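Bug #77: duplicate submission created two jobs. Keeping one. Sequence:
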Amino acid sequence: MTIDFIDPHVHFFALATGEYAWLKPDNPPFWKDKNLIHNDYCESDLSVNAPLNLSAYVHVEAGFDNENSLKEAEYWLEKATLPMTAMIFADLRVSPERFRQSLMLALALNDAPQQERNAFCAKPITGIRHIFDDETCNILSSDNTDENFSLLDELGLLFELQMNMANSNDFSALMKVLEKYPSLRLSVNHAGGFNGAHNRISTKELDAWCQNMRHLCELNNAYVKVSGFEMQDRNYTIDHVKRSLDDTLNVAGEGNVMFASNFPLTLFSATYSSYWQLVIEAIDSMGLKRSTLIHDTAKRCYFG
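Kept job's structure:
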């Protein structure tokens, strides 16, 4: 029997066309093995072995052109043969006028005939990402961030939240903004920077992560992507995956959690197909419902 899944977090690279400053060896992140992913990647690289079947995916911005982030979405949408939606980069610190202009251009793309290619992909652009990480407080304290979040809420666009959810100071700054917009839709990247790395964080950090994630998910519009294990440990095992999933389900609830790959960074540790095979093995061994975690929640979040 075919196992259909949606991958809600992939990146493609077209090195001769895009900028990808972060992939260059002189720029952070300074991973010793970063050269392993310094290649072109596209939809055809998302190959899996039967009975796995990729039915749709979400392309998350990867630094193709941060001055005109729609170029990246348009480039890959034109090449897509499977249902695809894109998360574009948008800087929350720019003036509200400039931010609105960027979003209006994105929404205009949603109305283009291109979307007739597949009814499953009703919106080529679903939302934006602005990575917070170590810049969380700086971004959130910007004079324009609050108003720009308001516009995202108004337009019903999804925000990809990427930050360390164990950092309570950063989380407090985040909630001061989010509590003003309880209907704002969020998707937390890589389980809030946790990903089963119990051997790398203290009990205090784990407690903070649990408390903060639970508080965030009480907003009722927050989804969590369990992914990015290779970012914590290149040699992660199924036990890492199971423990991360268990902890995430405990704070977010089964209906709000989905697996993702973070391709091509998955290649630091495993092939694309073997990653998803490991995911299926982890889900089955825990007695959980496959379709919820690898298909249905992602469909509702990004394609609903």
